[in-house]
Amino acid sequence: MDTGRFRVPAGAMDWAIAISVAALLLGTGLSGQHPAGERELLGAVLLAAGGLALIARRKAPIAVLTVTGLCAVGYEAAGFEVLAVSYLVAVYGAVRAGHRALTVAASVSLLVVLPLAALVFRDGPVREAFAQARHVLEIAWLIAAFAAGEALRQAERRADEAERTREETARRRAGEERLHIARELHDSLTHQISIIKVQSEVAVHVARKRGEQAPETLLAIRTAGREATRELRATLEALRDDDTAPPRSLEHVPELVESARSMGLDATLTIEGQRHDVPAAVGRTAYRIVQEALTNTARHACATTAEVRIEYRPDALAVQVDDDGKAALDDVPAPGLGLLGMRERVTALGGRLRAQPRTEHGFTVQAELPVERAS
Question: N or C: which end of the chain has fewer CB within 10 A?
């Protein structure tokens, strides 16, 4: 559970509940009629253990359900008639986690075992044994705990579905908007830039065919036309990326490094740490960071080498791209669209991005992306 200004961390809440339930069971058991001697000590230990077991109710709900049930049987057999509050809390947690069938089976078994334990370990008629078992586990409280867990599980499921629906709607609208922008750019700019590029190419060709030297301004126009065509094509491809193509992720980073080598850049790739699966969004973001950094290095940095380093950490994925370009410490990086896009991607995942000139020379891009791993 996330922590906020008015929220308590989940771990602290579990500890508070476990200690409170253990204290409640001990106080109730020792203040009422209870056996003396070794049975008193055994019963007190089982009462406390049943409450403290709730610390692990989120991580291991079935195990906690089993432990609290056995503790209830144990202290009931020892002579303590205390409502199994810890087991009721465990029922709530197990049902909330989705283990309804196992919870029902465990509860039915406990309802059968409790009177049998009273008959075997305690003296008295059968009716008294069943009365003692009923005091330890009231069916009404058991049903209430089950219903509360199921109600919260359904509420969380509906909230998750609503969140997924909102995200899918937002992605669909964003995709539609990208395609609309791509069409507008294509219709309004591609034709004009193509005309400029073709006309400048023709003019340079004609001048050279006549044996004349093409003016520097004409050569600059031709170069700018070529660059504008490449940039526009890349922009349109990015805008038209509507997730219909296979997603690019960490396994495709070597292709980026090889592509950088083909452009004359001495690029290397180093992977450190124990490899493990990362969320798809983290993999895509890491790929885009490397792609943008290498593209900027090849086009603008006047660099000869680039080093890509990916480090797998237990709770994060670190990505770093260094080059030996012309950037100096006193240079302020221009906030271009590529850098802004990288920062937005990293921030959306709760990570950190640092893009700045290196101490010696060149530029560095460092990103740390948090990774939530299943326990």
Answer: C
DSSP string of 94-115, one letter each residue: HHHTT-HHHHHHHHHHHHHHHH
Helix (H, G, I), strand (E, B) or coil at 79: coil
CA distance 231 to 299: 11
- Cβ pair 94, 68 in contact under 8 A: no
For the chain, the C-alpha Rg in angstroms (whole number) is 34
**Mean pLDDT score, 129-147:** 77
SS3 category, 313: coil
Whether pTM exceeds 0.90: no
Res. 1 pLDDT band, cuts 50 70 90:
very low
Whole-angstrom Cα distance, residue 127 to residue 311?
A: 67
Cβ neighbours for 69, distance < 8 A, ≥ 6 positions apart: 84, 87, 90, 106, 109, 110
CB 25 within 8 A of CB 86: yes
Residue 153 contacts by C-beta under 8 Å, 6 or more apart in sequence? 95, 96, 97, 98
Among residues 177, 199, 179, the alpha carbon closest in space to that of 187 is found at: 179
Provide DSSP, 317-341.
EEEEEEE-SS--TTPPPP--HHHHH
Burial of 111 (0-12, 13-18, 19+ CB in 10 A): middle
Please state, in angstroms and rounded to a whole number, the distance separating the CA atoms of residues 194 and 261. Answer: 29
Furthest-apart CA atoms within the chain: distance in Å: 121
Backbone angles phi, psi at 320, to 5 degrees: -140, 135
- Span 281-337, pLDDT tens digits: 899 889 989 988 888 887 766 788 999 999 999 889 999 999 988 876 666 555 555
Task: Determine what percent of the chain falls in helix, strand and coil, rounding each to the nearest 5.
Answer: 65, 10, 25
> Mutual orientation of helices 100-121 and 85-96 as an angle, nearest 10°?
160
